[in-house]
Amino acid sequence: MARAPKIRGEGELIAHVGRKPGTHSDDVQLDLTAFLVGSEDKVPLGDRLYCVFYNNHLSVDRSTRFLEDVADGSEFIHVDLKDVDERVNKIIFAVSIYDADVLGHTFGTISDARFWVEGEFVSKPGLAEIHSDNLSELFGGHAAVVIGEVYRSAKGWEYRKLGTNHTYASLAEIGRAYGVRFDS
To answer: What is the pTM of this model?
Structure first.
């Protein structure tokens, strides 16, 4: 498998989740979350303000912002990498299905759920796709997944796909894995 390209430390990154327009008539909501984590892969101080999602649209350091397109239901998270707090070593991206346990949905029961990341490559200016996944195909039996992370390295920020060994039952369960509680 090819390594994901390096991202400029001073650049930007945009993670997206959505479905192909016209492929869905159901009311399934895909939720995108970014966890800004520090040492020991935990959210600093267990503070939900280091998590960016539908209930918190801006990280405490103001580097990471949640946005949505109400017309098509897609969500995206914009990160200004130059503004990320020095205590943050990684930004973890997770996708979950809202109320999956109540509605009985998994990625396999919905059509064309997709996640993709755009960033600035070291070798060329402007945003370009770094990675994409069809969640419906890859994680059919699951309702929540940690899909990837951008992390600091000696060479700058790099993206790494996670996925198959990082599936969960819900966003609350993912939060607990990173030291934050959404269910209290």
So the answer is: 0.90
Q: How confident is the prediction along the chain (184 residues), in pLDDT tens digits per residue?
A: 455 555 655 688 999 998 876 555 567 889 999 999 998 899 998 899 999 999 999 999 999 999 988 777 789 999 999 899 999 999 999 999 988 888 888 998 888 889 999 987 666 667 888 889 999 999 988 999 999 999 998 878 888 888 777 888 889 999 999 999 876 5
CB 132, CB 14: distance < 8 Å: no
Give me the half-sphere count of Cα atoms (radius 13 Å) on the Cβ side of residue 74: 19
Write out the two tokens for 38: 């520090």
**Rounded to an integer, what distance in angstroms lies between the CA atom of residue 148 and that of residue 165?**
11
Domains of the chain: 6-177 (2.60.60.30)
